[in-house]
Amino acid sequence: MAQTADQLVVIGKGRLIAEMAVADFVARSSTQSFRVRVASPEPFITAVESSGGATSANNDGTLIITGMDAKAIGDLALSKRIAVYELTAQASLEDAFMEMTSDAVEYRGAK
After folding, report:
1. Residue 74 contacts by C-beta under 8 Å, 6 or more apart in sequence?
2. Which of 38, 75, 31, 74 is nearest to 54 (CA)?
3. What is the rounded distance in angstroms from the CA atom of residue 108 to the CA atom of residue 95?
4. CA-based angle 65:67:73, to the nearest 5?
5. Cβ atoms within 10 Å of 9's Cβ, excluding its own
6. pLDDT for the residue 78
7. Of all helices (H) and strands (E), which one includes residue 86?
8. DSSP label at 82?
9. Which whole number is the average pLDDT over 107-111?
């Protein structure tokens, strides 16, 4: 859906939850994370975590950062003079949808 739709209308329990562009809907998700590739991962991890962000490392050498937006991540790297080779938002439409509609679910599946 994220690849084909421009606008999104979400209705839950008979009420309008959202009507906006798909990109705006995903950007509002609080679970947004960023895939980051930097020249010096260890000092950058320390800087991110001391700035209130959280990190996890992927097997391919990239980091996943949550708790910070793209501007804050870029500004932090600049202040530490660490080259950034990749900075990509990782939030998905599905994650944003599940978060935004969590209060509008009538029936939940078994866990």
Report:
1. 84, 87
2. 31
3. 16
4. 60
5. 10
6. 97
7. strand 84-89
8. -
9. 58
Helix (H) or strand (E) holding 77: helix 70-79
> Are residues 91 and 29 in contact, defined by beta-carbon separation less than 8 angstroms?
yes
Q: Note whether 36 and 84 are within 8 A (CB).
A: yes
Residue 8, both tokens: 């999104």
User: Would you say 87 and 70 are in contact if contact means Cβ atoms under 8 Å apart?
Assistant: yes
**pLDDT tens per residue across span 51-87:** 999 999 988 999 999 889 899 999 999 999 999 999 9
pLDDT value of residue 85: 97
Q: What pLDDT digit, counting tens, does each position of 19-56 carry?
A: 988 888 877 765 678 999 999 999 999 999 999 999 99
C-alpha 93/C-alpha 97 separation (Å) is: 6
The pair of structure tokens assigned to 63 is 């980091």
What is the radius of gyration, based on Cα positions, of the chain?
17
Q: How many CB atoms are located within 10 Å of the residue 80 CB?
A: 14
Q: How far is CA 44 from CA 84, 90, 97, in A?
A: 10, 19, 31
